[in-house]
Amino acid sequence: MTAAADDALLQLRGIGKTFTGVAALRDLADHIRAQNPPPVSRPAAPRPPVREALTYTLTPDQTINPAVIIEDFERHGISGARGEAASGFATVSAHALPLYQQELAADGNERRALLAALVALYAANDDSTTLARVGLDGLRAHQHWARTLLADRATLADEARLSDAIAAYARNCAAKRLSAGGSADLLALTAWLGQHFTPNPGTLL
Q: Which of 92, 9, 100, 98 minimizes the C-alpha distance to 48?
């Protein structure tokens, strides 16, 4: 992949070029490739162009114009995975982790607490994976569904009902090819923090 393609891919993922480590990693990758060239008899398979790769798994009616995605990122301040990391994982610390700790303290049910935290992430996270799959309107509809579920305390407090609601929504997402991969990653971080840090009064952790 060329440097220009690398830059374009970073932009499409909404993470920009805010860290000098990007150039360093590219230089390291180039060095490794130079030291270990692919065998002549088995050349490396060509990679699709960035724009093609972005829409590779989408059906034609769900294809999103990459230029539109970049414009949405810039207009609405969506910074993607790197922006989330640069913020100190603010979405986790402000939304997912407090709810996880609250629900876990209520009845000790870790699975229900994690499901609730996942819904909190769906509601608060400007997931760049979701944006790439279904566009800005799809992302906002996804977040609206999650906020509506968060407001339903009876469902949130019942593991079976909460699990069924999420499972039904997941089937709907699969039909639309909507992915919330970014939120899934943040849920893993939420679970890890929940295991290793004890909340103190007046603080997030």
A: 9
